[in-house]
Amino acid sequence: MADSDASPHTAAFWIQADALLRKNLTYQKRNISANCRLISFPFVLCILLIITQTLVDNQISKDSNVCGCRCINTNADGTCERVCDLQYSDLDQAPSCSVPSPPKWPPLLQVPGPQYRAVRSASDPLSDLPDESCRQTGSCPVSLFITGTNRSLGQSLAEMMFAAPSILNSTNSVLGSNSEPKQDNFLDPAFAEGSLYNIQSLCTSNSTFTVSVPYRSTPFQNVTTCVQSQSLWRNSSSEINDQIYRGYEKGNAERKYNEILGAYDFLNSDATNFNVNVWYNATYKDSSDGETYLVRLPRAVNLVSNAYLQSFRGSGAKMILDFVKEMPKTSTKLKLDIASLLGTLFFTWVVIQLFPVVLTALVYEKQQKLRIMMKMHGLGDGPYWMISYMYFLAISALYMFVFVAFGSIVGLKFFTLNDYFIQFLFYFLYINLQISLAFLVSAFFSNVKTATVVGYICVFGTGLLGGFLFQSFVEDTSFPKGWIIFMELYPGFALYRGLYEFAEYSLQGNSMGTDGMKWGNLSDSENGMSDVMIIMLLEWLAVLCIAYYVDQIFSSGSGKNPKYLLQKFRKKRPSSFRKPSLGRQASKVFVDMDKPDVIQEREKVEQLLLEPTTTHSIVCDNLRKVYPGRDGNPEKLAVRGLSLAIPRGECFGMLGPNGAGKTSFISMMIGLTAPSTGTAYVEGLDIRTQMDWVYTSMGVCPQHDLLWETLTGREHLLFYGRLKNLKGAALKKAVEDSLKSVNLFNGGVADKQAGKYSGGMKRRLSVAISLIGDPKVVYMDEPSTGLDPASRSNLWNVVKRAKQDRAIILTTHSMEEAEYLCDRLGIFVSGGLQCVGNPKELKARYGGSYVFTMTTSTNDEHEVERMVRRLSPNAERTYHMAGTQKFEMPKHEVSMADVFHAVEVAKSRFPVYAWGLSDTTLEDVFIKVANSAQEFHTLT
């Protein structure tokens, strides 16, 4: 069957795009308050960071945190002046002072405290350690482990390291401390707050002396305590490692429990080769706060080097380690950038909160069936995707621009120090990836509340997992880089990594007075920004393609075959190719041979399918829908092989009880569900394969009103009119005519938001939408539901005028509406068409009797029955109660004149309170056909 050229009502790509864009901008304008709340989130966060930064700066700038600031009466005038100088500083202030000549102090060893020195224990099988009782008296020696290939050399060198000095002073003595070293040792804490120990091979009564360290104008004076050392031989380095490991336990003080002074492995050392490994006490090297402190290692290396030198060159040969001191430094001011410290986590939340916003907007259109409603009125997938994507991209880009601009205006170093072009490129890639991901994920949600919950779980979950898990992996240099890249495939972690890099560079730049991240830094081996941006670019393109494919399969009406991409894209309207549907013979078992009208309709369809042209807008060929069984229930046969032909200019009414299959039939025709078998042709196009083209000539008034709550009635009609290729004055006139026809034009109703309409007003607007643009086929599912009598009558006139040169399928439960509007009726029961014809034909075919009703006294009931039997021997009494009786009399047995004459005679014989004679109504026909059909299917 050949088909005509493309419909003049088919809007071009850019016209559809323009219509959707105008609708989105209007919708966005109505939601300005929600947009303000969205943008206020980064505003509020940046303000909070600024307030926090101000409080921290004020705390840092206090005199107690500045180098030697004191209020001193320097002029002897009774008032004090603020003076900042190193000589007035304490140890907490010293790190911020200028130190042109740092103090010198004797080199120290890290000595275990008396309660932590290594002793014998149940877990240690070696017995050469001292007994645990020495801890009670504080007399435990410190242990030094020795190993190597030459035992005698190792033991002799160990004895020489801690020989009793001939002169007791800080230069010749081996000093140590159990104090905790600091990150910046401008004075070793041992001389200010710790204990000093003099380590000797044997402690005597005169082994204690005073050590003086000059610091500012007053030197520190410290008295040393002698600690005896003992050198213990171990057969291998493995034994030493094992014993150190056994001693690595934690006591109540949260420190190592069985500590040693150190250990030496002399390996293959001899008179010509000095090769040694040193174990040192690194208890405080890496603290719990993440800082790496200095370790007291130089003295341990000096001791073993001197012992080896003296062993082969004599006691006079020495390498003197006289003192240790820090490098000179200028004065510094503590700088703490709160935005860079907290920004990685907080800004992750700021950026990723756009994800649930986009996701819920897409799911809302899906849940409210607005997407399919637009598609059924001619909006193609291409314009929808382009405008929707660019719409969300514009909103996201504006959001990010305001975020970065405001953060820069208030002076957050996170934004001002890092290169802006890198920032905008990073954010541009991410928001594109985020929007693509929202399109993909929306295909798997059908409820806005569920999508919102899942979206915000992703927001907060990503930030927390990034801060407490992913960041630790990034900072761990031993963690494989490949696994880091694998984790960054999750977009949330890619965002977190990029923000982490910005924060690190801004922290460094703020503390050192330099710039943050520049393009040259992207080539640094430790900078992960380049990897992140490459990942986001590739993932964006991949997710976008997958999202479009999934949308076509699951979200576009009845969906498409997963192999549809293998078919080439058609650039023009396809011509129809009709052939009889397979399985027609099998479907005939559902046709009752006593229904000649249904058989005749099927034969008519078969004939139309063989003709090259037709004036019939709708041809249903053996249409069948079966819903699969669930939860142990059998499958449901909703539509049983329906064959139907509707020409242009006809309004076809579908009648049937609830659950008869009417909605399933309409859903197949408008593309909401796919037929199980069979097909239908709309304007010559197959609904199975050419539904996108069917939509261009179709109008739909669904059973439930599918409207945007914030758009007005006029804006709805303008949008759908543009989709039907109406422009300019023609569009304006069509909208006004539609509004007037359904009584929505006067009184400002047209410019009132649809969410404020009553149920009847929404219904009238839905009818106007279905008819605008002169569609060739219109489906109306119970269009007058909820209307008052006056509005219903007006709506009937609108529909009656609208059926000129178009086919209309109308479902209704109102027999009056069906009789007034429909040229033909079909009664649908249990998924099958039971009868077809105009109202008069159906009443004549299924209602060939008069209904006679008479009310008398109960004593005269037998007289009434005898009178009726005389008029019609085959009359059937259908109602009898309290003197009122109702009879059905076949029309061929009685004439109306005889009935009137008989009633007049009866009135003269007994009292007649009321009587009536009526023809069969359409409602009677419907009830009769429906009951008989249900009884038949119940028996079968």
Give a structural overview.
InterPro entries: AAA+_ATPase (IPR003593), ABC2_TM (IPR013525), ABC_transporter-like_ATP-bd (IPR003439), ABC_transporter-like_CS (IPR017871), ABCA (IPR026082), P-loop_NTPase (IPR027417). The protein is built from 29 helices and 24 strands. The longest helix is centred in the first third of the chain and has 29 residues, at 32-60. The two termini are 38 Å apart. It is 43% helix and 15% strand. It is α/β, with parallel strands linked by helices. Helix 2 (32-60) packs parallel to helix 10 (381-409), helix 7 packs antiparallel against helix 15 (491-512) and helix 27 (861-871) packs antiparallel against helix 28 (896-909).
Keywords:
lipid transporter activity, alpha/beta, six-stranded mixed beta sheet, ABC-type transporter activity, 29 helices, 5 domains, 940 residues, disordered N terminus, membrane
- Our measurement of the CA-to-CA distance between the termini, rounded to an integer number of angstroms, reads 38 Å
Give the C-alpha Rg.
47 Å
Share in helix: 40-55%
Number of helices: 29
